[in-house]
Amino acid sequence: MAQQDFEKRLAEAKTAYAANKLDDARFAMQQMMQELDILTGKEVLKVLPEKMDTATANKAKDNVSGASGWVGVVVHREYGTRAADGSQTTLEILTNSPMIGMLNTVLSMPMMAGANPDQKIVRISGYKGLSQKVSGPNGREDYEVQVPLTNSLLTLKAPGLSQDKVVELANTIKIADIAKLVQ
User: Fold this and answer.
1) What separation in angstroms does the CA of 89 have from each of 61, 69, 150, 170?
2) Domains assigned to the chain
3) pLDDT, mean of residues 52-80
């Protein structure tokens, strides 16, 4: 089905271009790119861990959504069951993330991360990432890990766990395999 949609959009783009309908050609190409990004997101879901510690992936809640362009597609997976406070371990990859520039600045200048006691530069499967404290419900200290992958951002949120445990969980993710798909 996806191959047919791709071929259909490609044919539309070629026809519009040949008729000098550049706006229509651009639109068909954008649709084709969005379909490719969603297909790529579905491939990313296949390489995500089945478990995070003792929490199993809720594949029924897997989601690939968004649109190509300025901000891209979001690949979303949840692990375990939602806690009474609404928190749950989640893993998201956002393509064309607007946060990449800021995060890469922090990672390339350790003094910036060191100036904020709530942030720590970490290695996740050989990639530089940022572990940071975030506010949880009722003032609880939660942690998340963010790893830039060229223009995509991987974020793991594991409310209620220690910083070391969140980093440990992040290291179970096949980041290199994801990076190959989203770059």
Assistant:
1) 12, 28, 24, 11
2) 49-182 (3.40.1000)
3) 86
